[in-house]
Amino acid sequence: MVSTLNIGVLAHVDAGKTSLTERLLFNAGVIDHLGSVDGGDTQTDTLALERRRGITIKSAVVALTAPTAAEDGPRITLVDTPGHADFIAEVARALRALDGVVLVVSAVEGVQAQTRVLMRTLARLGLPTLIFANKTDRAGAREDALLEEIREKLTDRAVAVTRVEGLGTAGARTVERPLVGGTTGSGASAETSAGIGEFLADGDDAFLERYLDDSVRLTEADYREELARQVAEARAYPVFFGSAATGAGVELLMEGIRALLPARKLAADGPLRGTVFKIERG
């Protein structure tokens, strides 16, 4: 069997989705030079106008893993989409080909107009989605307040799975939030193992029964398995904090992509299958 995973990176313009795509490619070893939007040398912004204006105009497809990576996990393909509202049709076409989405939100500017439009569309289509809170290294970056804003304006089924140390500084780092084992962090993002359990129990009656059964001892693996199932069914939206500019939290996001977003399993000797969502002429 061959596993494939087509991931879209979506955001309001300037939230940092192209920078995140570039960082993911760099961390995966696909590229050996980290390009920048300001420098006009990213892998996915190839049009002269895109590089001059620093915005994405057309969806771009890039392989995040090589074909041989199928032995260790799914073959992952990234689709970097436009963030400007003028190019929403380009985004809509790409959604048909996706297995999951990373929705990028700026930890400084927060939820913006296009973020809400995109989230409504993703919820309507039932697309599994991870939320990446970017720019945690910037002055004015928020963690607790941003999580509350996401829950208020995007979905009440958002749950933080990482946290930030040194928020709003150049040295900001992201650490994993254990699903079992006490309280980490503070404020709105301070999820205890009980809080995570209650969150998952609220999303599924069968898990609720297990959670309330004193004779059942739920492990970290149980929580992760249930979280992945609810993500796949678009009933939970994990929030990862980090910075595409510094790379903080991006490896944890990559782990989340592999563990939480549902890959398609295809027979290697089966019939050819695919979805055409755009045609380009060179």
Automatic annotation (TrEMBL):
Q: Which SUPFAM superfamilies match?
A: P-loop containing nucleoside triphosphate hydrolases
Q: Which residues form the Tr-type G domain?
A: 2-266
Instruction: List the molecular function annotations (GO) for this entry.
Output: GTP binding; GTPase activity
- GO biological process terms held by the UniProt record: ribosome disassembly
User: What InterPro entries does the record point to?
Assistant: G_TR_CS, P-loop_NTPase, Small_GTP-bd, T_Tr_GTP-bd_dom
Keywords, alphabetical: GTP-binding, Nucleotide-binding, Protein biosynthesis
Q: Which residues cross the membrane?
A: none
Pfam family of the protein (one): GTP_EFTU
Please, which domain of life does this record's source organism belong to? Answer: Bacteria
Please report the name of this protein according to its UniProt entry. GTP-binding protein
